[in-house]
Amino acid sequence: MKLQTILNRLQKLHPKEIDLSLDRVKNLCKKLGDPQKKLKYISVVGTNGKYSTIQAIRSILKSSIINCNIYTSPHIQKINERFVFNDVEISDDDLSTLLKEVENVNNGEQITYFEILTAAYFYHASKFKDKINIIESGLFHRFDATNIIHTNLSSIVTSIGLDHLDWLPKNEQNIEKIVYEKTSSLLNSTIVVSKQSSNETLNLIRKTIKNNQSKKIIYKDDFNYSLSENGFIYYEDEYGGLKLPKPNILGNFQIDNCATAIATVRNLQIGVKDENIKEGITKIKSIARLQEIKSGKLKKICKNNKLYLDGSHNPLGAKVLNEYLNTFDCKKHLILGMMSNKDHEEYISQFNNISSITTIDIPNQPNAISGEDLKKKLNKYPNIIYKKSIEEALKTLNPEKDDLIMITGSLYLAGELLNRN
């Protein structure tokens, strides 16, 4: 309750949820002693795959007995997930103390919620100066609150696609603008570019970072992998080849993220050994990213049917999710809840061979589209119905034996499911 009271106050410090500017966070960090200037960073930008890439790096480093600090957003179940120091998620009491101290230093000045959380992260991370900080960039990168660091070890560019278009001018709602926003202000260090969904996107990234003096490590040019029939992965880069087991996360697209993580840690030259990589990719902790729900209250409703959860919420995420679903020879049922600012029609158009769609409400999210309105927007699809809650949707489905149920469309919905389960 104490923590939630503080969070409620912080959310009222600015009339807007997002106000793209770096001035406020810079001013607060200056009052805090500019802690962001004293740290070592790996910065991660992109549209999809950021969280999974970060968790892969974290797991590899942990296997190397190298603990790190991590700052990500949004959280899934609780805000503490955003703040990891020395490989430990911050406790409620410590987070309350930290935020209260930063709130006092801010002294009522106008600042967005994300900006004050970011400043608080930098402030606390300065107490672990010897640790590498893995920082996920939020909405875009150029004016994201995380983009106030001066030096870093590496910049990672994960898969870039169309998302958050409502924050761009109408005439700039395109992939060129998104690539520019995410990659034009990368620091001079090492830039690792993950597999992209198209040559067009990759070429736009190449063009934008062309004059950046960083060493550039680009998928297929400088690192690559192949899948063998016996389930192994063969990874290769300038440091040689590695025969690796498959990672413990679902979907071949996750291997792209693991390959990017491997390319990054090998180029850091910080003592990570081949055996650390092999062990690390089999112990990745990931939630709400193509996660099978194997037990719990909601799983009981499904009985013997497989239940999956995925927080994808943009067309690129839907595309790779559909590719995974098509590896199953069974009927697939989607339970869908989304935020109002997403491209709902484009998202659902990425799926094929879906037997039914059930739209639902996302509770406690005023910016979510209602399940009824979502159904109306997607009414050209057959076998689409609306139910108010996840529980109602699951009870109504009555799937046949071996049918698969996928709940998707929003990370906020993912958090709701995990909490209810």
Give the helix tally. 15
Biggest sheet architecture: 8 strands, mixed
Strand arrangement, major sheet: 4-3-2-5-1-6-7-8
Helix content: 25-40%
Please, what is the CATH homologous superfamily of the largest domain?
Mur-like, catalytic domain
Tell me what the CATH architecture of the largest domain is: 3-Layer(aba) Sandwich
Q: Could you tell me the mean pLDDT?
A: 95
This entry's quaternary arrangement is: single chain
The rounded distance between the terminal residues' Cα atoms is 22 Å
Q: What's the number of extended β-strand segments?
A: 17
Runs in which pLDDT lies below 50 for 5 or more consecutive residues are none
Topology:
Blueprint: H1 2-10, H2 23-31, E1 40-45, H3 50-63, E2 68-71, E3 83-85, E4 88-89, H4 92-106, H5 113-125, E5 132-136, E6 154-157, H6 175-183, E7 190-193, H7 199-208, E8 215-218, E9 223-227, E10 233-237, E11 240-244, H8 253-268, H9 274-280, E12 291-292, H10 297-302, E13 306-310, H11 315-325, E14 332-336, H12 344-349, E15 356-359, H13 371-377, E16 384-386, H14 390-397, E17 404-408, H15 411-420
Parallel strand pairs: 1-5, 1-6, 2-5, 6-7, 7-8, 13-17, 14-15, 14-17, 15-16
Antiparallel strand pairs: 2-3, 3-4, 9-10, 10-11, 12-13
Helix pairs in contact: 1-4, 2-5, 3-8, 3-9, 4-5, 6-7
Question: Would you give an account of this structure?
Answer:
The chain has 421 residues and is an alpha/beta fold. It has two domains: 279 residues, UDP-N-acetylmuramoyl-L-alanine:D-glutamate ligase (3-Layer(aba) Sandwich), CATH 3.40.1190.10; 130 residues, Mur ligase, C-terminal domain (Protein-Tyrosine Phosphatase, Chain A, Alpha-Beta Complex), CATH 3.90.190.20. Helices cover 36% and strands 17% of the residues. It has 15 helices and 17 strands. Strand 10 and strand 11 form a beta hairpin. Helix 3 packs across helix 8. The radius of gyration is 21 Å and the shape is globular. The two termini are 22 Å apart. 44% of the residues are buried.
